Known about the structure:
2 copies of one chain form a homodimer.
Chain A: E1 4-9, H1 13-29, E2 33-39, H2 51-55, H3 70-75, E3 78-82, E4 84-90, E5 95-100, E6 103-108, E7 111-114, E8 118-120, E9 137-139, H4 143-157, E10 164-168, H5 172-183, E11 187-191, H6 202-214, E12 218-220, E13 225-230, E14 236-241, E15 246-248, E16 251-254, E17 258-260, H7 263-267, E18 278-279, E19 285-287, E20 290-292, E21 297-300, E22 307-308, H8 313-328, E23 342-348, E24 351-359, H9 362-367, E25 373-380, E26 391-398, E27 405-412, H10 420-428, H11 433-438, H12 453-464
Parallel strand pairs in A: 1-2, 1-7, 2-3, 7-20, 9-16, 10-11, 10-16, 11-12, 18-21
Antiparallel strand pairs in A: 4-5, 5-6, 8-17, 13-14, 14-15, 19-20, 21-22, 23-24, 24-27, 25-26, 26-27
Amino acid sequence: MxxxxxxxxxxxxxxMSAAHQxxxxxxxxxxxxxxxxxxxxxxxxxxxxxxxxxxxxxxxxSDELIARSPERHREMGVDLITGALATGIDRDAxxxxxxHDGVDKSVGYDQLVIxxxxxxxxxxxxLRPNGQLVGGVAPAKTxxxxxxxxxxxxxxxxxxxPRRVVVAGGGYIGVEMAEAARARGLEVTLLxxxxxxxxxxxxxxxxxxxxxxxxxxxxxGGAQVVGLEVDHRGWVTSVExxxxxxxxxxxxxxxxxxxxxxxxxxxxxxxxxxxxGLRAQPDGSVASGIWAAGDCCEVRHRLTGDWTFSxxxxxxxxxxxxxxxxxxxxxSRSFGxxxxxxxxxYVHGDTHLEISRTGLSTRExxxxxxxxxxxxxxxxxxxxxxxxxxxxxxxxxxxxxxRALAGAQIVGGRAAAKRxxxxxxxxxxxxxxDDLAEADxxxxxxxxxxxxxxxxxxxxxxxxx
Amino acid sequence: MxxxxxxxxxxxxxxMSAAHQxxxxxxxxxxxxxxxxxxxxxxxxxxxxxxxxxxxxxxxxSDELIARSPERHREMGVDLITGALATGIDRDAxxxxxxHDGVDKSVGYDQLVIxxxxxxxxxxxxLRPNGQLVGGVAPAKTxxxxxxxxxxxxxxxxxxxPRRVVVAGGGYIGVEMAEAARARGLEVTLLxxxxxxxxxxxxxxxxxxxxxxxxxxxxxGGAQVVGLEVDHRGWVTSVExxxxxxxxxxxxxxxxxxxxxxxxxxxxxxxxxxxxGLRAQPDGSVASGIWAAGDCCEVRHRLTGDWTFSxxxxxxxxxxxxxxxxxxxxxSRSFGxxxxxxxxxYVHGDTHLEISRTGLSTRExxxxxxxxxxxxxxxxxxxxxxxxxxxxxxxxxxxxxxRALAGAQIVGGRAAAKRxxxxxxxxxxxxxxDDLAEADxxxxxxxxxxxxxxxxxxxxxxxxx
Lengths: 465, 465
């Protein structure tokens, strides 16, 4: 090797952000590098978050979800090998091992970027004795999963009697797949171990649950699935929970979360944390010459400093870009952590429900040993006399001693949820609850009430402290 | 007087916020106060910002624009006198003079709150020799103005040939009244002295101008009005600009701005500034026992420390509340200044145009002697494959030396403009351009691109510095 070789494991958001940023930076500083990327699937840089909207039919083709095809990455200078599953790393020799079409291969590296993402959690109850998924049961993580769901839902919707989908898992993907199944004309039961959107405080998640129920989604909280019943074809017919309840279904979405895909890295002696994720330094390094970014990593919570697992494309893109920069100019960028910001919606028929959160929930604050006070404020997204006005509830959190802003949760109608960024931006800069209560935010009747609801919520909490 | 008497001049946002907050605080601390409010009109606490949407027909009745009627204020403990125009203050005696139904009266005070708001600027060319407005010419500031505009527009729209409204002034009210006139079926010419939305940088305001023109609004920049032609009835028929251009019209909206209504206060020796506004201390006081809040005040720009004039309901409500608190517990609250945040839209037919800004424009930064770098980034409000995706352009500003964030301007489609709050919240807390580029903002396909456009704009500017 005359040129420095960077090998990237995984060709989605984090890996390809790192690859292209490294190529850009190398060009800037006039350094010769070679970037080889190994991707286990045939797809690169696609929007996993867009899959529910493709499954629902809102997005016509999976092509639209692909930000950059393998061909495009190659044109841009990445030597991309698809169908190549990373199997191990020989750190002393500087060699990555992988399986390509069933053949064991290896590639030497000067620097290695691990960006292998996360894999869906597949509970034992979802598997047949042979280790395959029960018929009618699938996650919704990859483009292959997405195509399978379209086929399954279209077929089920065409059946004579109304068909029912059980969604196991009441988080973001669960709610979005419930929307997709409803859009395809199916009945939906949403089973959740604790509560729907359990990353919210109970008084906020209960608002979500109530509105989903009013929209015709059967929501069952505290429903831990323990087993499935299958018909003679091996197809799911019902779901049994730990309480002995049985929920009939024709299809079952596994929205039970993901975990870092790091098995091969553990074998190489790289340390992983509570969720099995790599724990990179702020610059993205995990060992000498080895870097990690994206969903295969755990990340630091910016407010608590604790490690957490937050598998989102936003972090993956940012981390990948940081690693790509530091590959060429070490130490020049660092990752600032996460606030736990997230957003989703449930839209079907007359229902337009938006949900978002940032910072610490009451439970998260308690777990971190932090004091937190909070208050829910109800209002509207626009002046009450405007047709745009939709109801919204905002819960804000602050430390009652230091008055530091700690988080917010929003449940409301159209234009409600993205307001969470106002709080996230304030939180990121270490604002107090008073800062948020006093800031100069935008008002005109179609856009807000004169006391913007997020600000009103902050003001009311500030007054109570 | 056994009870302490607070006299409030002006019963809109600032005055009534002060009045009720004082009553609340007095109750809390067990202090006996009496609040007398003098209001020159018969209306209290109405949304002036809502008037264009009432004129357009989107809001059915002016009742909807009234947050609290005089009766309601009285029920809540304010001794409210309508039709009472403040005419002077005797500071030594502690007496406010006013004219009530043409009769001179006076009232003693222990503490006085000046909240007399702002008055439309009426250029000489809009007046007849007798000092009355030319026929067909009116501002759009009060509920009386609003009703007049509804009557005028409905009558004009009912005429045989399409009727044309000239809007003189291309700021927020000008754009909103253009929307209202179009909604009523009239043709619109928007005349502006400099450019439409001139509080934006030219490269952003030109986007607004282009889209307004595409939507059928005739926008004429650099058009300083010097005179009107009137018919035999004294009704406006055309507008002449300094360049000699003549624009035919049947009606003319005066959207030429407002100035503080402080004549009587100047007479009492209270100092006013460049715009004629009172310059209150951060606690709201302007002299011993005298306070001021709302549109009759100038305010400090939070970033430059300079005085500016920013007549908006948001500031009026905040300042009123601060004064109300400090009336009872002096020194406990202070006003943090303004960022110049503002937002509006132009919506008609297929056109949905949103506009917002916060912080310093290039011109404002230069005027304050500050260095500022900026960059325009184009993107979308949602993932490109979603039906929600609308184009948006974001210009961000930062100090190239300190990297301090300095402002942002947004022009785009649906859901574009309220993102300005993300920048405003960051600005309020003294964030750097890097903070905004790195913050954990919310992403899901219906709400944003994976690099949220505001963040992408910040990142690109940050990379260039």
